[in-house]
Amino acid sequence: MDAAPQECVPRRPVDRRPVRWREWTPLALLGGALLVGAVLWLTGRRGPADGVWAAATLGALVPAVGAVLRQWWRRRFGVDVIAVLALAGALLVGEYLAGAVIAVMVATGRALEAYARGRATRDLRALLARAPRQARRRTPDGGIEVVPLDRVAVGDDLLVGPGDVVPVDGVLAAAATLDESVVTGESQLVGRAAGEQVSSGVVNAGAAVGLRATRDATGSTYAQIVRLAREATAHRAPTVRLADRYAAAFVPFTLLLAAVAGVWSGEFVRAVAVLVVATPCPLLLATPIAIVSGLSRVARRGVLVRDGGSLELLGRARTLLVDKTGTLTEGRPRAAETVVAPGGDGDEVLRLAASVEQLSPHVLAVALVRQARERRLRLTTPTEVTEEPGRGVSGRVDGRPVRVGQFPGGLPDWAEQARERAELAGWSTVWVSDDHGPLGAVLLEDPVRPDARRTVRRLREAGFSRLLLLTGDRPRTAEQVARLVGVDEALARCSPQEKVDRVRQESRRGVTVMVGDGVNDAPALAAAHVGVAMGARGATASADVADAVITVDRLDRLADAVEIARYARRIAVQSAAVGMGLAVLAMLVAAVGRLPPVAGAFLQEGIDVLVILNALRALRGGLRRRDVPPATRALLDRYAGQHPGVRAVLARVRDTADLVATRPTAEGCLPAVRDTHRRLTDEVLPHTDAEERQLYPALAGPLGGDEATATMSREHVEIHRLVDAIGGHLARADGRLRPDQVPDLLASLYGLEAVLRLHLAREEEDYLALDPDPPAPGR
């Protein structure tokens, strides 16, 4: 297909930050003046040397006075006044060399601050720099035009060239290979099939591909991320304001000590020496550098925090309130079981339901179709399809009338039992029926995220002492999820107003974080000290009011953000405290006459460099996540990708067990057992054997030894034993199952289903969650 010249649309933008020479020019000039004065002094021309140093001191004093006056005009009292007094005092007592050194020190501090802030915000700047500004749009006559991004409308057919940034959210017209690292944190290339939704901001790493826009530029995913990033760079952190509050005590102490030293000794130069070493660059520079470094790091982890204030609050929060659906759970239903009428076929019931639901965008319909495809069932295009909102879909499949959704009439005994089972488990029930009554039911679960329990543990380790689950779901379901993930309390059937009330109640006790993903969570997010939105699926309303947005569909990134926030805050306080402590010690030494102004100026310069370098430590460290070698991550990806197939066999095991329990003498019972055993030996056992040989040895390093996988290996042995037991019963069966075989066969089938379900859950929670970049669909 033809494409416009590649230079029309920006490729992957590079962070080309212009060199800000104005930030370094004062330092270069003042440093040059200090050196020129030193040369003059060493060659015996001390008068000209003092003149050069005095000029340098005056050159730093004038802008410093202007900065202090601007602060006073804004009714802010900061520690800059000490620098002004030190420079002025050096001029008054004739300590021109000390004044020049102080001038260089102040300029160095400002230059280092500019460098460190630029280094800390590099990732945020890169995010802003790569924002798409143009798009290729197909014209009615079949051509391609390059248009500004704000002219792209929903429904436009676009062309995304090789290396281009996807301009707006849309649906792919063909398969594509994408680099989604900026939006989702996924480091490897991802394959997406035709018809899949893709987010703006990802990069086309393959051939040119068509895209139908589903959102305009302002409503697309990347535009929201860019907006949050701009806000994150535009706000000051409370820690910086805290530094100004410290100045209320530090400045009077400094002035008092300088006055006492001068009056007590009768030497004004001692007062100047105290002011020189009291210049509070550590307080002014270290705290904002550490906080902005934390903002940059959480952005790299896929969490966009609006400002330093929110990061600082996140770093000292102790209470977490979290929504259930879409936050602790996947938010995407998954078929757990298929229950059929006596004599029915579970695969056929699921095939009929999925065939009718193929044209529906409803979340339950998507789950049915996905389950049918995982089971490799042949779907038929339905006819005469009608949908009644809230009630279901009906149509014809292969000429047979089929209805999927609610069942309006009374239920037979087997159906009542299925409904009760679903209620006890907290599952949803989708009935499949025809003109004669229900054919079966598909029981749908909203599975807990594999990383939820691990995330809760990490949050407790990070300092959260109180974790609550808020949900509008039923109490039984809420309690089950709360028990599974390990939160302290579950509050069910919560309306949006009740969520807000509970958030406000907890906020009166201390700093509170609320996490949610839906429109109904937006008021609670706004009421919390820090609202965190799960924004990977376009939860616009909640993201708009949240203080932080998790842009990748993983809950464990919340734990990453909390650990980074606590670490950045600790580094900020540490840097300020150490810098101020060293400055106070130097002030005391200067007050007793043991530290002249010139030596004090050089000493203070060293303290400034020390605390700034320490503050930059916030760019690394603080995460408790174990490092996983690339080869091990590849294995984790491979076996995680095989789990959907194993779960399909697991559902088949349950269906077969139910058939043996209800109709062991039926004609299709023994063939069903044989087919299930074949799939177990052909699909499940090779998977467990390969894990035992390859994956578990590779995990010994990240998990701290072979003992970490010992219990999982024992479960592999039990899975093998139960599959062999089923095979043994099949070998002894002569055309049909004997009555004496049924109890033990049922025990093997149901036992295998329980062990295998638990085994998969534990693997996903304990092992596959180690992978910081989980496999995406199609990878």
From TrEMBL:
This is Heavy metal translocating P-type ATPase. It is a multi-pass membrane protein. It is found in: Cell membrane. Keywords: ATP-binding, Cell membrane, Membrane, Metal-binding, Nucleotide-binding, Translocase, Transmembrane, Transmembrane helix. Its main location: membrane. It comes from Micromonospora humidisoli. CDD domains: Hr-like. Residues 637-769 form the Hemerythrin-like domain. Residues 131-229 form the P-type ATPase A domain. Belongs to the cation transport ATPase (P-type) (TC 3.A.3) family. Type IB subfamily. Residues 383-402 are annotated as: Disordered. The chain crosses the membrane at residues 24-44, 51-69, 81-107, 246-265, 271-292, 571-592. The keyword rRNA-binding does not apply.
